[in-house]
Design goal:
The protein is mainly beta. The strands form 14 sheets. Strands 20, 23, 24, 27, 28, 30, 31 and 32 form an 8-stranded mixed β-sheet that branches. A hairpin with a 4-residue loop joins strand 31 and strand 32.
């Protein structure tokens, strides 16, 4: 049998393999033959000749390598290549148990480029020497060169290349940029680059700021600490007296990026020195600021005082604050003291006094009371006399003004009223005291004295109790206005009022042929219209008059004998009007209508049966109101009960003359006249109507009738559509009765 020549093949197939330390490595060994079954004892041998076995073998595990079977071959695996693995490795096998096969490969190791100390961001300090660190290692040793911003760096006195970096002499901000550290290993052909960002840092510097700040107590204040540097510095505020970081304290807020210190609700404890500290990677700076807390004024003491009249009074007010309020300064205390001195004090000096303390922080006020003590006085007791009659109780009252309050006692006829008298009662003994007297007889009338006393003196006041009587006879009664049925009187009062004011006047009247026992009376309150109505025309009457006070009526007097005039036409109606102008023109609030109202005049013996209203447009010519021709309108009101009529279809902004006459069967009265002016603009027109407007009763009747018709219509609809409703119920009852009668007949 002729066999082909078998051969071992190692992949990778290079006889020498250069590999970097730390890498993983795999070598495969295969027999190049078609008779795979004739191959045996396929093995790998290390440089010392030991057989390398699988990972379960102790020696292989210690050597850091092992073998694994592969299809058609055997693999040598080195998970982490180390320097000790360098050398010649041999792959061997037997073929047909007679021929020995062998193949070798040389493994050489080298150290790859490694960046041992080359940070990608580095920051020199301005004006200082700085080494841009770039420590790189490799085996074989690498060559290192530098680029700046992508261009080859030219070394000089400013840039000096060192074995582990690039030295920058006295760095400036112009040295900022991207520096490239490039390492090359020629033997292995390895190339590596590290980009290093260089930014020259500048130490922080605090700018101009105030050394002294003033805060106002209770308010919110801020201080700005400004600084520049690269990179942007961080700010810290320190209270120097306590070394406290204010960013961690209550009421304080610190913005570490802007340097803003905010103090909320400043207190007096915030007074002192504060330090602004700025810091970045290049250095620190600090500045001290003195904060003065302005304390708002406070009134410490202001006492109320009491001083008798004619003495000297001194009100003292002490106040605190920072700076001290601008008043009199007492150096022994952190207070300001102000004094108000009043000499020979008067009662009018009594009252409230305001102490005002102020500084730049604000103003404080407080009220203090000065009480002026004085002896009793009855200056404001108006009662000097009192009146009573016929067991009518009366009160005598004394008001004693004094400080302190006085005690009041009562005297009569020189004797203090001590004994109990059921007709004399005392209420209160100061500062108000009332003596209630029920005069049963004449002995209770006379002078009563109230006596007030306090620590500063005594005062007395007398009140005379007099007996009141009815007024005397009326001095005169005048018949002012006489119509056929009425008389208007005026009176000249009685010469003696009886001690009390007149409250009423009365008339007693009768027909002259009758006795006074058949007379009639009429009473009027004082200052009211004294009008007697209901008299008969052409009749002779006797009149007599009397005045009345709280005691009663005086005697009848001032008699009159008068014959009433005959019946005649009514008196002139008095038109009621408002809103008159200076020329007696009445302004209507409406542009097209006016409500005319009047008072019913005296009918002079015959009832009024008609009112006639005439209204005409007028204009003033030579100060005389002249009617426009053929434009007058007349309205007749047949009912005498009318006192209101609405004139309609008037023109806007127009003067009208209105005449009102009353008529009885004797004739027309003289007219009552007014001039009105309608308003500008156009109100909705009011439909004209000669007849009176519908009464409220007629309107209610129409509404009720309408509702009744609607209800009937609804009930009919329910009957025909739904078989419900009142009509349906009535019809059903009728049917049921008829049906019941039929059934009864059938049963019978």
């Amino acid at each position: 049998i002729v066999l082909s020549n078998p051969e071992l093949k190692i992949k990778p197939s290079q006889p020498v393999l250069n590999r970097a330390i730390g890498q993983s490595m795999l070598l495969s060994c295969q027999v190049d033959t078609k008779e795979k079954n004739l191959v045996s004892k396929l093995e790998w041998h290390d440089p010392t000749g030991h057989v390398i076995r699988d990972h379960t073998d102790r020696y292989s595990a210690l050597a850091g390598m092992h073998t694994e079977d592969m299809p058609d071959g055997l693999a040598l695996m080195i998970p982490v290549l180390q320097t000790r693995h360098e050398g010649t490795y041999n792959c061997s096998a037997k073929y047909a148990n007679t021929e020995d096969l062998s193949k070798t490969v040389l493994i050489r190791t080298f150290v790859a480029i490694t960046w041992e100390d080359a940070p990608e961001d580095q920051n020199p300090i301005i004006n200082q020497d700085y080494k841009v660190r770039c420590k790189v290692s490799a085996n074989p040793a690498p060559l290192v060169n530098w680029l700046r911003n992508g261009e080859q760096l030219q070394t000089d006195n400013h840039f000096v290349v060192d074995t582990d970096g690039l030295i920058i002499k006295k760095a400036t901000e112009e040295d900022d940029g991207v520096y490239t550290c490039r390492a090359i290993v020629i033997d292995t052909g390895e190339l590596a680059e590290r980009n290093i960002h260089v930014q020259v840092h500048t130490p922080p510097k605090i700018g101009d700021m105030k050394r002294d700040e003033k805060f106002t107590e209770g308010e919110t204040h801020s201080i700005q600490c400004l600084a520049h540097g690269k990179p942007a510095p961080k700010f810290t505020w320190i209270k120097m007296s306590t070394s406290a970081d204010l960013s961690k304290e209550d009421r304080f807020t610190v913005d570490e990026n802007t340097g803003m210190l905010t103090v909320r609700g400043a207190t007096k404890d915030d007074h002192g020195n504060y330090k602004c500290v700025v810091k970045n990677e290049a250095g620190t700076d600090e500045r001290v600021v003195n904060i003065t807390v302005v304390l708002k004024p406070r009134i410490v003491t202001l006492k109320n005082i009491s001083v008798p009249t004619d003495k000297n009074a001194k009100l003292s007010c002490s106040a605190s604050g920072r700076p001290l309020p601008t008043v009199h300064l007492d150096p022994s205390k952190e207070e300001t003291i102000g004094s108000l001195i009043i000499s020979s004090i008067l009662r009018t000096d009594d009252g409230l006094y305001e102490c005002i303390a102020s500084n730049m922080g604000g103003t404080a006020t407080k009220m203090g009371h000065l009480t002026v003590e004085f002896a009793p006085s009855f200056a404001n007791t108006p009662m000097h006399e009192a009146w009573s009659w016929h067991d009518n109780p009366v009160n005598l009252t004394c008001l004693a003004e004094s400080i302190p309050n006085a005690t009041i006692t009562w005297y009569s006829k020189g004797n203090e009223l001590l004994r109990p008298d059921p007709n004399i009662q005392t209420f209160g003994n100061g500062p108000i005291s009332t003596l209630r007297i029920t005069p049963r007889n004449i002995k209770y009338y006379g002078y009563y004295k109230c006596k007030a006393q306090n620590t500063h003196g005594v005062a007395e006041h007398k009140i005379e109790l007099k007996e009141a009587k009815p007024p005397s006879e009326i001095f005169q009664a005048k018949l002012e206005v006489i119509t056929a049925t009425t008389i208007t009187f005026s009176f000249v009062g009685p010469a003696e009022s009886g001690g009390l004011p007149t409250t009423h006047y009365a008339v007693q009247y009768k027909k002259s042929h009758l006795d006074w026992n058949f007379a009639q009376n009429k009473t009027w309150p004082v200052d009211s219209p004294y009008i007697l109505e209901g008299l008969e025309p052409q009749t002779v009457y006797d009149f007599r008059f009397a005045a009345q006070n709280d005691v009663g009526f005086g005697n009848w007097a001032a008699s009159h004998h008068h014959t009433m005039p005959k019946r005649s036409y009514p008196e002139e109606p008095r038109i009621l009007s408002t809103r008159q102008t200076d020329d007696d023109v009445i302004l209507s609030p409406y542009s097209d209508h006016y409500q005319l109202t009047w008072k019913v005049p005296a009918d002079n013996g015959e009832p009024i049966d008609q009112y006639t209203i005439k209204f005409c447009p007028v204009r003033k010519v030579d100060d005389i109101w002249t009617e426009s021709e053929n434009q007058c309108d007349t309205k007749d009101l047949s009912s005498s009960e009318h006192t209101l009529f609405e004139l309609r279809n008037l023109h806007a902004d127009t003067h009208y003359k209105i005449e009102l006459r009353a008529r009885n069967k004797i004739g027309y009265s003289t007219p009552g006249e007014i001039i009105i002016k309608t308003a500008r603009g156009a109100d909705p027109p009011v439909p004209a109507s000669d007849g009176p407007a519908l009464s409220s009763g007629a309107i209610v009747s129409i509404v009720v009738a309408s509702l009744f018709v609607i209800l009937i219509f609804i009930d009919l609809s329910c009957y025909f559509v739904n078989h419900t409703g009142l009509l349906w119920v009535i019809c059903e009852k009728t049917r049921s009765r008829s049906k019941t009668s039929d059934e009864d007949a059938k049963l019978g």
